[in-house]
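User: Sequence in, structure out. Go.
Assistant: Echoing your sequence, followed by the structure tokens.
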Amino acid sequence: MNIALPVILFFLLGILLYYIDLKVGVQLYRKWYKLTHKDPLPVGIQRGFIVNSSLESLFGIALILIVAEVLLSFQIGNSPPLLDILLGVLGFIGLMLGFYLGGILMKGMGKTIGYLEHIEKGELDLGKELVKGVKKAREAIKEEKTNSTDDSEVQEEHSETKEDDKPEKDWRDGVDDFLKK
């Protein structure tokens, strides 16, 4: 059995759990917070059981999941208990990495996921979006071309002034300077 397999599997499970918590767990956490606290959670705060949680709560969730996995593998009994515990420790590392990197991935992909949801609902026409994208690309290329021609003219003027400032040296002077060293 490959030792990296539980790390990879629990890493993917951590990302999946982060995504599920982002979609469903935030609302459930708000209800849970309302039941257990006197004042409701402020409106601007987006917090779930995993999303924007403290290290202690992530540690607790990961520990509960790993203990359940290790106990289940003890019940099945196909592998030695020490190997089950070792795979549980590696799975814990993968799960914690999944929780943290899932947050980074979801923040980076939030706009993409929202865009895809608009397409699925039929709010956006792909043909029109494609035409807009092509027009933006053409404008960007035109701007780049005009900027590059402006830059090349400035560089030519700058190089001409540098050449005028320096007196011309004979190549023999460079050889003499080299031989003197």
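User: And one key feature?
Assistant: The radius of gyration is 31 Å.
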